[in-house]
Amino acid sequence: MTRTARRVGIVLFQLGGPDTLEAIEPFLYNLFCDPDIIDFPFARIGRKPLAKLISTTRARKVQHHYATIGGGSPIRRHTEQQARALEDELRGQGVDAHCYVAMRYWHPFTLEAIEQLRDAQCDEVVLLPMYPQYSSTTTGSSLNEWRRLFSDDVPVHCVEPFYRNTMYLDALVEKVNEALSRFPVPERPEIVFSAHSVPMSVIEKGDPYQRQIEETVRLLAERGGWTNPNRLCYQSKVGASRWLQPSLHQTVRQLAAERAREMCVVPVAFVSDHVETLGEINHEAREQAHRLGITHFEMSGGLNDSPRFIQALGQIVYEALEHASNNLITIRSTGRTLAAPQYATAAGLD
User: Fold this and answer.
1) Are 246 and 234 in contact (CB under 8 A)?
2) Within 13 Å, how many C-alpha atoms sit on residue 250's CB side?
3) How far is CA 29 from CA 74, 275, 296, in A?
């Protein structure tokens, strides 16, 4: 039987996370071996020994985070649920969609997703980085890994960052409103928008991440229409180098010094719950806030597979397929420059 409809493979990129406590160190080793994360003169010689040192040391420090959330990261489960829900959403719109998950640093790896695509005999591939904002350390790294591994004679395109998409913003607003409703007076708590930090050296090379995070916060505040005071901070810094500031912990201390008693933390760079939200925010920052006298602490839940977010992803992919020349970026012939931050604007990623 001859197949006439286009079979579209959609690859959901994520960083991934260790699914057991034993997987923490190898996961971190993979992360710090990435040239898009650790790069310095003579890095080809020193990267692996340095990655081993950092991962061994860091694993001991973060093990308690994973222990408090059940002994492993739920990000694979959430991303695979997103993939199944997106597949159903697109098929409901008449697209012969086949969605696969490609994690950067832990299973299922990019190569595993590629093998699934080949088995499905997809006619076209759409890459969907599950990072609303672009950074060379996230989207860029995932695309570089894809190009190293995939050279099949199939059209491959990449969806642009979707932090401006109104349906995505509405999905976030819905989660924030749910969290605010748990306060006695929803208009009273300080809203703290928190994003994953990146090294200042990355920003100074032209990476648009900080600017896109700030725009996300502005668009989200406008969309939500909240009268609450709000501020932006960053989390998950590693090492002694300069990273985007202020940190989440600095912000909690500052709010306590200002005699704030209620705060609502809103993750704005993540689309699913994992160790940075469940461990760093909802456990560690919550405990810090209570020690410092903040009496009511809430975190807005991850988007995960909420219907509104899945509808947003469906719209993003469907519109891209309908207007491929405008909304999709062919990546096969662009080389590494697509992922390099200084070329983000030229590539249409800004």
Assistant:
1) yes
2) 12
3) 19, 17, 37
User: Roughly what angle, to the nearest 10 degrees, separates helices 166-180 and 209-224?
Assistant: 60
Q: DSSP character for 243? A: B
Tallying the residues shown for the chain, one arrives at 350
Element housing 232 (H / E) = strand 230-235
Average pLDDT value for the chain = 90
CA angle 131, 301, 309 (to 5 degrees): 50
pLDDT tens digits for 127-184?
A: 999 999 999 999 999 999 999 999 999 999 899 999 999 999 999 999 999 999 999 9
DSSP codes, 65-93:
HHHHTTSS--HHHHHHHHHHHHHHHHHHT
- pLDDT higher for 322 or 217? 217
Cβ(161)–Cβ(269) below 8 Å: no
Residue 346: exposed, middle, or buried by beta-carbon count in 10 A (0-12, 13-18, 19+)? Answer: exposed
Whole-angstrom distance, CA of residue 208 vs CA of residue 213: 9
